[in-house]
């Protein structure tokens, strides 16, 4: 990749600057005259056309930073010239605060240099990663682009265009979070959304309007994202500088080699980002809604070893072979596919399941049909049950349903009709705050509030993962339970375990996004299974092997869990954005239930009676 072409610098000036940059040397110890802090300069960690970067240690706190050193253009150690490029960089960068922007901690100067104390990113840059890896996988690219889009959106909201987005300016901290850095060419846009018509930046990544001397804009940064996406997926930039005039002609025309080996969604997004007309490029607000992101797996984080070797994701990629195998293993147990079943997005030509296309039950799967009406007929959109085995412990499926109906009626028939909620408490209740229905093809997955997860598979078997992830519990039917260490799960269960881990990964991500739904919970016993699930247009009902009945309504409606509190039944109600409130049966008998609660309990009873 060619060296950057810097603003306002002729070749003779660049040669003079290079001679000046070789001397004088940066001192081993530096003192900030403003704060009095003393720093120890460490090894050289990077260099650019204008500056060098060193590891830096605060002698009083041992905190580690990055030190960006820019030679002074002359004039001694007096006040910094307000109109200089370095001063502009400091003025812009020092005001920025964002997790995807390299943090600015301070600056000072001496006779020879200007120093900027910055956040230290120990994993170096994406340029180093690509040099070691040659190309990156699409899940990795989605991960990095999400961070870059977040940081770049923040810059643009501050009316700042970066003007030099490239791999060597994207840094990785120890947690593999990507950070946009080097704001040496960044500037504020004018009233018309553009800045001075100056040809600056990295030639490969210049947008058509910049090459045509119409100036940079926010859309020019978006073009650079397209170049970056192409580069990390293919290993080479979309436009190469041989000769420069021909490259600029290709940039203006948006003509680049078609990356035929990439997925169609990746190719389409690259084409949108590299649209010659700036108005046709996607905005940052809509970029993450592109099919490349919504129909593809994005990891929550990347392991450090992905800097030099491809990561192995929890969700196997690609998924096509896995789910072809699953299709042979899982037999039909539920009713035929129905309109409720979430859309099934997959890679072109593959039968894979995509986590981003799944609907979480407590989020969006249930349509809002208004107040539950006792006259509305119950139409079950989906249902499934743990299959019955030979005579063994536990009751029959019919007995389990009848017991659940009896318990619901105990709450419904308790006490007078209440006009306000009875006094409640906060109890540790085990329930499933998130679930996903893919029963027409694979199974019904759920995440428990104690961190465990499970799936009632399409063939009527059940698989569960304990909260620590070390133990797997397999119930081939109601009378059996087999326990395995995760590493010892039989190969015959490999496809089912992959389904469970796929669901668990997706639902854990959703739970992390909605911490308000998490409440302290007693840990589930190893034999806990989802015996049955029912889904109607207004609600879903889950029936667990410990007798717990959960009724989840549409997003803005309460969630109900009826469980055994030890001495008596306990009804716990979660309202949107609020912690759960528990009502022992004795409280309900003395105070009664409000009309809305009664309606939901009646609907749950009618759902159970309909099977």
From TrEMBL:
Ranges for domain POLO box: 431-509, 530-611
Main localization, broad class: cytoplasm
InterPro entries the UniProt entry points to: Kinase-like_dom_sf, POLO_box_1, POLO_box_dom, POLO_box_dom_sf, Prot_kinase_dom, Protein_kinase_ATP_BS, Ser/Thr_kinase_AS
Chemical reaction(s) catalysed: L-threonyl-[protein] + ATP = O-phospho-L-threonyl-[protein] + ADP + H(+)
The name this protein goes by in its record: Serine/threonine-protein kinase PLK
A Pfam cross-reference name: Pkinase
Residue ranges constituting the Protein kinase domain according to the UniProt record: 39-293
Provenance organism: Sus scrofa
Classification via Gene3D superfamilies: Phosphorylase Kinase, domain 1, POLO box domain, Transferase(Phosphotransferase) domain 1
Family indicated by similarity: Belongs to the protein kinase superfamily. Ser/Thr protein kinase family. CDC5/Polo subfamily.
Subcellular location: Cytoplasm; Nucleus, Nucleolus
Gene Ontology cellular-component annotations: cytoplasm; nucleolus
Keywords: ATP-binding, Cell cycle, Cytoplasm, Kinase, Nucleotide-binding, Nucleus, Serine/threonine-protein kinase, Transferase
KW Cell cycle (keyword) present: yes
EC number, UniProt record: 2.7.11.21
GO MF assignments: ATP binding; protein serine/threonine kinase activity
PANTHER family listed in its UniProt record: INACTIVE SERINE_THREONINE-PROTEIN KINASE PLK5, SERINE/THREONINE-PROTEIN KINASE PLK
Annotated spans, Disordered: 340-362
Residues that hold ATP according to the record: 68
């Amino acid at each position: 990749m060619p060296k950057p072409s810097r603003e306002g610098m002729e070749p003779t000036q660049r040669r003079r600057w290079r001679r000046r940059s070789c001397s004088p040397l940066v001192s081993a110890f530096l003192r900030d005259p403003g704060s009095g802090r003393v720093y120890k300069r460490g090894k050289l960690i990077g260099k650019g056309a204008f500056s060098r970067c060193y590891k830096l240690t605060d002698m009083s706190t041992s905190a580690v930073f990055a030190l960006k050193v820019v030679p002074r253009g002359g004039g001694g150690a007096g006040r910094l010239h307000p109109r200089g490029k370095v001063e502009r960089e400091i003025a812009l960068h020092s005001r920025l605060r964002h997790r995807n922007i390299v943090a600015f901690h301070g600056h000072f100067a001496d006779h020879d240099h200007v120093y900027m104390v910055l956040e230290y990113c120990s994993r170096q840059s994406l340029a180093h990663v690509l040099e070691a890896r040659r190309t990156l996988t699409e899940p990795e690219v989605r991960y990095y682009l999400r961070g870059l889009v977040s940081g770049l959106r923040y810059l643009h909201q501050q009316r700042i265009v970066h003007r030099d987005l490239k791999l060597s300016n994207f840094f990785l901290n120890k947690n593999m979070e990507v950070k946009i850095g080097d704001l040496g060419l960044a500037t504020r846009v004018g009233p018309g959304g553009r800045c001075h018509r100056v040809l600056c930046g990295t030639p490969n990544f210049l947008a058509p309007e910049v090459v045509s001397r119409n100036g940079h804009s926010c859309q020019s940064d978006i073009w650079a994202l397209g170049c970056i996406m192409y580069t990390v997926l293919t290993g080479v930039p979309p436009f190469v500088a041989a000769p420069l005039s021909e490259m600029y002609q290709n940039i203006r025309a948006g003509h680049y080699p078609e990356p035929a080996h990439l997925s169609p969604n990746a190719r389409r997004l690259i084409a949108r980002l590299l649209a010659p007309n700036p108005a046709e490029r996607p905005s940052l607000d809509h970029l993450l809604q592109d099919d490349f992101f919504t129909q593809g797996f994005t990891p929550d984080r990347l392991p450090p070893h992905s800097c030099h070797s491809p990561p192995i994701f929890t969700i196997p990629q690609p998924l096509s072979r896995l789910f072809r195998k699953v299709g042979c293993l899982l037999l039909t147990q539920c009713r035929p596919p129905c309109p409720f079943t979430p859309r099934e997005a997959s890679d072109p030509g593959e039968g894979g399941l995509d986590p981003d296309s799944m609907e979480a039950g407590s989020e969006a799967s249930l349509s809002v049909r208004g107040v539950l009406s006792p006259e509305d007929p119950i139409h079950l959109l989906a249902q499934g049950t743990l299959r019955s085995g030979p005579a063994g412990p536990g009751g029959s499926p019919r007995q389990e349903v009848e017991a659940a109906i009896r318990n619901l009626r105990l709450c419904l028939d308790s006490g007078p009709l209440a006009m306000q909620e009875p006094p409640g408490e906060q109890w540790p209740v085990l329930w499933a705050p998130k679930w996903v229905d893919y029963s027409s093809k694979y199974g019904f997955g759920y995440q428990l509030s104690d961190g465990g997860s499970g799936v009632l598979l399409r063939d009527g078997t059940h698989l569960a993962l304990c909260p620590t992830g070390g133990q797997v519990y397999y119930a081939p039917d109601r009378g059996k339970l087999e326990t395995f260490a995760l590493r010892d799960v039989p190969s015959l269960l490999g496809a089912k375990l992959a389904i469970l881990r796929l669901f668990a990964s997706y639902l854990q991500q959703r739970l992390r996004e909605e911490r308000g739904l998490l409440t302290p919970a007693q840990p589930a016993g190893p034999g806990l299974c989802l015996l049955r699930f029912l889904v109607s247009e207004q609600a879903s009902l889950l029936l667990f092997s410990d007798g717990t009945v959960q009724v989840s309504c549409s997003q803005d409606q309460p969630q109900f869990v009826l469980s055994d509190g030890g001495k008596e039944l306990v009804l716990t109600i979660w309202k949107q954005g609020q912690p759960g409130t528990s009502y022992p049966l004795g409280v309900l008998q003395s105070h009664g239930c409000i009309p809305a609660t009664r309606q939901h309990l009646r609907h749950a009873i009618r759902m159970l009676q309909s099977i």
